[in-house]
Amino acid sequence: MAKRDLISVLDMKDEWPDLVDLAIKIKKERGNHNAPLKGKTLIMIFEKPSTRTRISFDVAITELGGHALYIDGSNVHMGHGETVEDTAKVMSRFAHGIMYRAYDYKVMDRIGEVATVPVISGLDNLEHPCQALADMVTIKEKKGSFRGKKLVYLGDGNNVCNSLLYSSAVMGLDMIACCPATRMPNAEIMLGAARIADANGCKISASHDPMEACKDADILYTDTWISMGDDTPVDKAIKLFSMYQINSELLSIAKKDCIVMHCLPAHRDQEITAEVMDGPQSVVFDQAENRLHAQKAVLYTLLK
Ligand code: CP
Ligand code: NVA
Predict the structure, then answer these.
(1) Using CA atoms, how far apart are residues 167 and 163, in angstroms rounded to an integer?
(2) Percent of the chain whose pLDDT exceeds 70
(3) What Rg value do the Cα atoms of the chain yield, rounded?
(4) 135 classed as catalytic
(5) Domains within the chain, CATH numbers bracketed
(6) Of 116, 268, 278, 298, which is most buried with the most CB atoms under 10 A?
(7) pLDDT attached to residue 186
C-alpha cells in the first residue's frame, strides 16, 4: 500500500472525524496500549523551537511501543550540505515515519514527495494539522458535537487558523476568522474550506469586527500575534491586533458556556488576558494534553 502523509488537514480529511473518535478512545485506554508500534522509529526534525509538539510526539510513540529520534534541523546536512531530497531518501531507509517542523511549506511538500515513509507536519508556515486535530478532540469532549456550534478565531490569520478552517469545514462546525484586513488567513485555504463547508452544511466566513463576530459564540480561539519566523515588531503587532484580544469584555458577548482555546505558547495580556487564560472557561491545558492523544491516533493510522 502506498505511504500516506499528514502535511495538510486535506490529506486526511475523509478520516478526520474517525481520527477524532480514535483519539478519544485512545485517551480512555491510556496505560493499557499493547505496543501496536513496537519496533517503529519516528524521526522528528525541528527547524523551529517546540515544547508541546516535540514532547507529545515523543511520548506518543513511546507509549505505543515505538521510539522517537529528535533532530535539530540546523545540525544535519539537510538543505545545507546536501539536498533536502537526498536527506529525505536516507531518512526513509532508517525510520518508519518522519515528523517535520519547517519554516517553508514548499520544503515540507518536497520531503513528502520524496520520502518513502509517512511525513507528518509538526507545523509549517501554512498549516498546523496536528494542532487542529487535537482542537477538534477538545471541542468534541467539551461540546459533545460540532453541528450548529460557532467557533470564532481572533487575531492573526496564520498556520493555526488555516488548519482550523479546514478542520471546522470537515467536522461541520461554523467558523469565523476574525482578523485585521492585512492579516487574513491564506485566501486559497479560506476558499477551499468554504467550499467544503458548503457541501457539508456548515459555514466558513470572515470578519474584522470582534464585537459582532463573537456574539453567541460557543468557542473563542486565539494564537500568538507574531508567529515563529515573522519579523513584525512587537509594538506594531500590539497596535494592529489589540482590538482582537480575548478578554472578559469580549467573552461576555459570547454564550455563557463558551470555551476559550489557545494552541500555546501564549503571551498573557497580548492576544489573551491572564484573567481569561487562567479563568474557568479556558480549556487550554486540556487542549495541550489532547495533542498527545490525537497524535497517537495519527501515528497508529499511518505507521501501523
Ligand atoms: N502548539 C504547539 O505546537 O506548541 P509548540 O510550539 O510548543 O510545539
Ligand atoms: N502560529 C504559531 C504557532 C505556534 C505553535 C507559530 O507558527 O509560531
Answers:
(1) 6
(2) 100
(3) 19
(4) no
(5) 9-128+289-303 (3.40.50.1370), 131-287 (3.40.50.1370)
(6) 298
(7) 98
